[in-house]
Design brief:
The protein is built from 17 helices and 13 strands. With 522 residues, it is α/β, with parallel strands linked by helices. The protein has two domains: 286 residues, Alpha-Beta Complex (Amidase signature (AS) enzymes), CATH 3.90.1300.10; 207 residues, Amidase signature (AS) enzymes, CATH 3.90.1300.10. The strands form two sheets. Strands 1-3-2-6-8-7-12-13-11-9-10 form an eleven-stranded mixed sheet, with helices on both faces. It has a two-stranded antiparallel sheet with strand order 4-5. It is globular, with a radius of gyration of 22 Å. This is Amidase domain-containing protein.
């Protein structure tokens, strides 16, 4: 029987991945626990004995700590690269986050950096030797860039995406590329090429999407900084579900040149690139490093604005708008408890808290998806049809979120979007709000192929606000996090999400539950 066109193309990519895994780094299959034996694998790499004590110590460091250690000669770039590569291979075996390892190039680059340091006593730049991961649809010179479409497997990139080139110039070492959903347009990382990327904290659960490979890899400390993209929460949803830090900058801030996305000319809701990390300082490090190189001189559509560090302030001068509920779907009990904890800490520090009710969210939610798919997803559907690639469950849902519109209706929706943006900002200004604190997702854990509500993040895409996600360190407590059995849903969305929340009770709790996360937008 002749394989379908999509299967042939998918197999090519799987073979590239298999051949890219460096010899001797992978664990034997009999040393790997099944998800049923060990669902939470966040400490497995430290427990399994595959890495030396020094390698484990190296991989526990963030980017800033690593560059400081390399500046004193405590670690070499090659030691750092090899340690993270070893960790990444095992991490991939556990949760399936990689699409290709770049071991040979990474080690060669690390040796070049070490020679430069020996010769000059200086670091190449602020990312000298820092191990970086990159989402697959961010182009790398000489590599296939398919964006999870088998129709694009023949696409070989001529040059690095500008964001990659600037990170490399600053000394970064690119270790591996990461998985993403079919079409890149939904919140669960699964496709016909590589399959599912699962959550390190509970492998029965989703890692989120569309930067789910990045979220899982960063959670397992397989790279110091991850490079993701975000059009409706694609950095922040995986960050929230996996329990790491993530940042969505404003559009036209970081360079987007060289990133492949179907319907790339759609500018009604722009996709942006941004960092994921295990601490907030590393998010700032990536932002500052890229913007300090004036990327707008190459990509002229970018705003020519250098990075502005947060100025020192006293808590008493800060006003935080608190949005516990987006007005459409109430967050689950652990998230409500996390919000209570965050408010208590802010209040104790002297921060002024102001209740925030989302403005015109009932209009913004459909507007987000109508503008993302204003051609009724014709581009995405066409690419899937080219190789007769089967649609996955959440792809089918995403492809039905839009409708075909003529240019005059799109213009009308742009006017509506801009009006609501101005009203939103005016209301914040009227109340003196500096930032909005809200949940990043409505549930802290979601089964694979079951993420269906992303407006807690998507609202900031349609508004084009910068937004960061951070973990609260709370975990589920069956005694504290109890949903009201008599809760009445306000709409069909809430009815569906409440039913999912109820169905997970007793399935994920304690350390098996992803750490609750909160979102800050400003």
């Amino acid at each position: 029987m002749v394989a379908a066109a999509w299967e042939t193309e998918a197999q090519k990519c799987r073979e590239i991945l298999t051949k890219s895994i460096p010899a001797g780094y992978a664990l034997a299959d009999d040393r790997l626990p099944s998800p049923e034996e060990r669902s939470n694998v966040t400490t497995f790499i430290a427990d399994c004995g595959a890495l030396s004590p020094k390698e484990l110590a190296i991989t526990e460091n963030g980017a800033g700590e690593l560059t400081a250690a390399m500046a004193t000669g405590k670690y070499t770039a090659e030691e750092v690269t090899v340690a993270f590569l070893k960790r990444a291979v095992i991490g991939h075996q556990l949760v399936n986050f990689a699409t290709e390892f770049l071991a040979t190039e990474a080690i060669e680059r690390a040796r070049e950096l070490d020679k430069y340091f020996r010769d000059t006593g200086k670091l190449v730049g602020p990312l000298h030797g820092v191990p970086i991961s990159v989402k697959e649809h961010i182009g790398l010179e000489g590599r296939i860039c398919h964006s999870s479409y088998t129709a694009w497997v023949k696409n070989v990139v001529a040059e690095d995406a500008l964001i990659v080139a600037l990170m490399k110039k600053a000394g970064a070492v690119i270790l591996f590329r990461t998985n993403q959903p079919q079409t890149l347009m939904h919140g669960d990382t699964n496709n016909n090429i590589y399959g599912k990327t699962v959550n390190p904290s509970n492998r029965l659960m989703s890692s989120g999407g569309s930067s789910g490979g990045e979220g899982a890899a960063i959670k397992l400390r397989c790279a110091a900084i991850g490079t993701g993209t975000d059009i409706a929460g694609s950095i922040r949803i995986p960050s929230a579900l996996c329990g790491v830090y993530g940042f969505r900058p404003t559009s036209c801030r970081l360079p987007y040149k060289g990133i492949m996305l179907a319907g790339g000319g759609q500018e009604s809701v722009r996709c942006v690139v941004g960092p994921l990390a295990n601490n907030i300082d590393d998010l700032e490090l990536m932002m500052r490093t890229v913007l300090d190189q004036s990327p707008w001189e190459v990509e002229t559509s970018l705003v020519p604005l250098p990075w502005s560090p947060v100025k020192a302030f006293t808590p008493q001068t800060l006003t935080v708008g608190v949005m516990v509920d987006d007005g459409i779907v109430r967050p689950s009990p652990p998230l409500r408890r996390a919000m209570e904890m965050a408010q208590a800490k802010l209040k104790a520090a002297g921060v002024k808290l102001v209740p925030w009710i989302g403005h015109r969210h009932d209009e913004l939610r459909p507007l987000l998806y109508e503008l993302c798919f204003s051609d009724n997803a014709a581009v995405q559907k066409g690419l899937l049809a080219e190789t007769q690639e089967p649609w996955l469950k959440l792809t089918k849902r995403a492809m039905g979120l839009g409708r075909e519109m003529d240019i005059h209706e799109i213009w009308r929706l742009h006017e509506l979007r801009n009006t609501i943006r101005e009203e939103y900002h005016a209301k914040m200004k009227q109340l003196g709000i500096d930032v909005i604190l809200s949940p990043a997702v409505n549930q802290v854990a979601v089964l694979t192929e079951d993420f269906t509500y992303g407006f807690y993040t998507g609202v900031y895409n349609i508004l084009d606000f910068p937004a960061a996600v951070f973990p609260t360190k709370l975990v589920s407590d069956a005694n504290l996090d109890v949903e009201d059995a008599n809760a009445q849903p306000r709409n069909d969305f809430e009815d569906r999400e409440l039913a999912k929340c109820m169905s997970l009770e007793g399935v994920v709790e304690g350390e098996d539950l992803v750490k609750s996360s909160a979102n800050v937008s400003f």
